[in-house]
Amino acid sequence: MIIYSTLKLGETAREVLKEWEVSYDDSSDAEVILAWPTQVTQILDRAPKLKYIQTFSAGVDGLPFDKLPKGVRVFSNAGAYSLPVAEHAWALVLALAKMVNRRERNAQSYMLTRKTLLVIGCGGIGSKVAQIGKSAFSMWVLGVSRSFKSQDFDERHSINELPELLSRADVSVISLPLNKHTRSLFDYKMLSCVKQNSIMVNVGRAELVVEDDLKKVLLERPDFRFGTDVFWRKNGREEFESELWSYPNFMGTPHTAGADSNREVFEEAVLQAVKNVRTLLTTGSAQNEVKVEDYL
Amino acid sequence: MIIYSTLKLGETAREVLKEWEVSYDDSSDAEVILAWPTQVTQILDRAPKLKYIQTFSAGVDGLPFDKLPKGVRVFSNAGAYSLPVAEHAWALVLALAKMVNRRERNAQSYMLTRKTLLVIGCGGIGSKVAQIGKSAFSMWVLGVSRSFKSQDFDERHSINELPELLSRADVSVISLPLNKHTRSLFDYKMLSCVKQNSIMVNVGRAELVVEDDLKKVLLERPDFRFGTDVFWRKNGREEFESELWSYPNFMGTPHTAGADSNREVFEEAVLQAVKNVRTLLTTGSAQNEVKVEDYL
């Protein structure tokens, strides 16, 4: 069994996979690929024996699902970034609530304590976001998810209740995967449902939100504040240049929540990915198997 | 017994003091003054019967202590702003940790989970800051204080241990009152003790920190990030214009943590002040009596 990895594994990660051969330059005999999603397209043609893909990223929306040979199983790295991304989501929420680094004295501060938090997508990140809201700010926590990974939700709802939930939430955090069910979920109609003086933060993927509709709502509703770590892809690449930076009710970060901006986070994430591969090769199943049909 | 208030009290606040006469224009028979500290100087000469001062603010450093008639007792509004100011402190900490609204992709994110938090001044604000750090981010919490108001401290220290504590803390939050013991505490020597890749936030008073020394350390240590809600007074007024805004490792807000930026916070704070006056007039003692000698 040969594993092909697009990243040179560190000592600790290599040790986890010591029972298997790991190649960094030849995928021709590889049955497992360890890669970032967008790297997979160019590997596929040169990996005829491929059985499993394990991504380094939590999101797998960048994978070429339509080109995957039938029977190839995909495993995401969901959960590997829960702590840093949840911290990051709260950084955006709080910066918007308190208008950090905006020098006008007339900006209103929004209070968080005992307000209502809505978490949209309650996997590893969303569950940690909920736990912080509950423990730090005694918030009432609403969750929207297919499956809940924690006990920190006061109410559990399904995605078709979103309009009503948005009208109740003082803070909402989007931590959904991007797939055929969630793409463009936040269009003009949905965004218009948000409560007066509320904050929304997106740490999922930009394309969950319709960019032009967001701009329209932010211009119409100066009381509504929006933050994002993720930006819309143009020609396949995230484009961080955006008119939004000039909006007074917008704050952002250029996709720095995850592995790119902290060495420790990156190494932990790689380690989780290789551990999952080890579990898979040892037991035949592993965490975070992706429902391929969600993306087709 | 006549109470003189510089603020017209709302209905709820007035109800709390219904047993006493409240004047808004004549202090000549007043035994109690309800005011912001800087308003007191001009009232003193026209309040010959003065016994008690209750401030609307938590800090009393703006009072003319040297001009107070002997025997006048002073009560601060400490605690009234604990929740909003603690939220605000965390907004600055997180914004600096994640470099919110800085568009450079190369800025390093600092992780908070399981790191060390140092709270300097553990009254109402500091205790809430500690509780958030512990519950939201599982931090190890060091406290420096004369008296501790909560159980959320893993270690309790005195102010003379500050240099060593600063060298251990990944995040430090200053929530001290400004008095003769604390003014200019954070000079070049003290600030130079901070740990590599650490964050310091000041929500007390600017003059706890020596402005020029701070600038020097921020220029020398790009890894050190500093945030403040409070600015140095020039000619008696907080001056929000500052070179610091242009520093890449600085973030701020123009004293918007407290009463000025949220109506609800303001009304709650006024209510706490009048309740304290009620307690004082009914029982002869009350919360937050100020040690006048700390300021002389």
From TrEMBL, chains A, B:
Highest taxon listed in the record's lineage: Archaea
A molecular-function term among this protein's GO annotations: hydroxypyruvate reductase [NAD(P)H] activity
Keywords (A to Z) from UniProt: NAD, Oxidoreductase
GO CC, any one term: cytosol
Ranges where the D-isomer specific 2-hydroxyacid dehydrogenase NAD-binding domain occurs: 102-257
Ranges where the D-isomer specific 2-hydroxyacid dehydrogenase catalytic domain occurs: 27-291
Keyword Oxidoreductase: yes
Family: Belongs to the D-isomer specific 2-hydroxyacid dehydrogenase family.
Designated name of the protein: 3-phosphoglycerate dehydrogenase
Species this chain originates from: Candidatus Marsarchaeota G1 archaeon BE_D
